[in-house]
Amino acid sequence: MNATLHQPVIEIDKLVTHYGTTEILHGIDLEVHEGEIMIIMGGSGSGKSTLLRYLLGLGIPTSGSIRLLGQDITRCDADAMYQLRRNMGVAFQGGALLSSLSVVENVMLPLREHTKLDEKTMRIMARMKLEVVNLGGYEDMMPAELSGGMIKRAALARAIVMDPKLLFFDEPSAGLDPVVAAELDELILRLRDAMGMTIVVVTHELDSAFKIADRITVLDRGHILITDTVTALRASDNERIQSLLNRTPSKERLEADAYMDRLTAG
Amino acid sequence: MSYNQRQHEGVSIIELSGEIDLSQSPIARQQILGVIESGQDLLVDMAAVSYIDSSGVASLVEGYQAARKNQRQFALVAVSNSAMSVLSLARLDQVFPIYASVDAYFQQDD
């Protein structure tokens, strides 16, 4: 896919965020184009989960802007955000299914919240999405009865039940066996191809990222190291990118003064 | 979305056009179920459909199920590539009777 032919549907401009007094993201710029699969990668503490949280409108940044489908979510009112959420789907890392509802009732939740469709129509839509994620026939099961892979697939079914323009997927492969993880990767590709969804995946799984990405952005300590294609990423001579790709521990020189300050502050 | 309904050789044909999304699919659903409940065979002509979402596809599923229950014929005709992608995602391309055109449906019946 040639993403440059398409309009940006996510535009992040000079995003700075804090957690308490600690600055987490230090001026992030990123564009994601319509129909693109963008992978956000980075190690623990890189800021990738924080970036996702702000993309979902779950935090107010210190400065900068985030435009989703042309709307600046750092400045829009609650009503505009509610309308925007109709076009957004999120599959959370742990699934975030409601434990007291069956699988199909979980998948139907966004339809109940955002539409006045007939009950039968909603149920058929939910069942269709369960078929898409290979959970046909499991609709009456409760979340506690599902395996890890099934929970992720049920969460994905719920995320796509409204046919969102933007799909966010947090760690789709984490904790799954390789076969189930590969199936989820295939599913993400099929969703993009069939529905034209723009998909942002946060992951630290290299195999998965390389398989599905149009472009990858690598976060490191709150900065973007690179945003480019898989080929360009592999060819990069940046030490920290290569460290991430080759799964080698960081061997950067310790900043002695800063380290001592951290140990002895206060 | 707009729609037009006509009769041809005793079969009702609903021609849907434009975007069938969350706001429009209830109208399509009402038309489709209305024809089936009146005891007629139905072709849904999708040649002019520019976009159909899951709620639109769900309406087609409901129509087909109602037709089977009432022992009436139900088929989709002239399904665009983009609509076919949506149907294929849930493997419904293997479920619905689908014809290239209205003529193809009646030739098949001959």
Jot down its keywords.
heterodimer; A: 266 residues; alpha/beta; six-stranded mixed beta sheet; four-stranded antiparallel beta sheet; 24% strand; globular; B: 110 residues; STAS_dom (chain B); anti-sigma factor antagonist activity (chain B); STAS_dom_sf (chain B)
Give a structural overview.
- The complex is a heterodimer of chains A (266) and B (110).
- Chain A has 266 residues and is an alpha/beta fold.
- Chain A contains ten helices and ten strands.
- In chain A, strand 7, helix 6 (178-195) and strand 8 (198-202) form a beta-alpha-beta unit.
- In chain A, the strands form two sheets. Chain A has a six-stranded mixed β-sheet, with helices on both faces.
- In chain A, helix 3 crosses helix 4 and helix 3 packs parallel to helix 5 (148-160).
- Chain B has helices at 25-37, 54-69, 81-89, 102-109; strands spanning 2-8, 11-20, 41-52, 74-77, 98-99.
- Chain B is 42% helix and 32% strand.
- Chain B is an alpha/beta fold and 110 residues long.
- Chain B has a five-stranded mixed β-sheet with strand order 1-2-3-4-5.
- Chain B has one domain (2-103): STAS domain (Transcription Regulator spoIIAA), CATH 3.30.750.
- Chain A binds chain B through residues 115, 117-118, 120-122, 124-125, 128-129, 131-132, 161-163, 190-191, 193-195, and chain B through 22, 25-26, 29, 53-55, 57-59, 61-62, 85-86, 88-92.
- Chain B: GO terms for molecular function: anti-sigma factor antagonist activity.
- Chain B: Belongs to the anti-sigma-factor antagonist family.
- Chain B: It comes from Methylohalomonas lacus.
- Chain B: Residues 1-109 form the STAS domain.
- Chain B: This is Anti-sigma factor antagonist.
Strand order of the largest sheet of chain B: 1-2-3-4-5
DSSP strand tally of chain B: 5
What does the average pLDDT of chain B come to? 92
Shape-level CATH architecture of chain B: 2-Layer Sandwich
Residue runs with pLDDT of under 50 for 5 or more positions of chain A: none
- Strand element count of chain A: 10
Number of helices of chain B: 4
Give a quick account of the main beta sheet of chain B: strands, pairing sense, barrel closure. Answer: 5 strands, mixed
Amount of helix of chain A: 25-40%
N-to-C order of helices and strands of chain B: EEHEHEHEH
Organism (chain B): Methylohalomonas lacus
Pfam families (chain B): STAS
Domain STAS (chain B): 1-109
Family (chain B): Belongs to the anti-sigma-factor antagonist family.
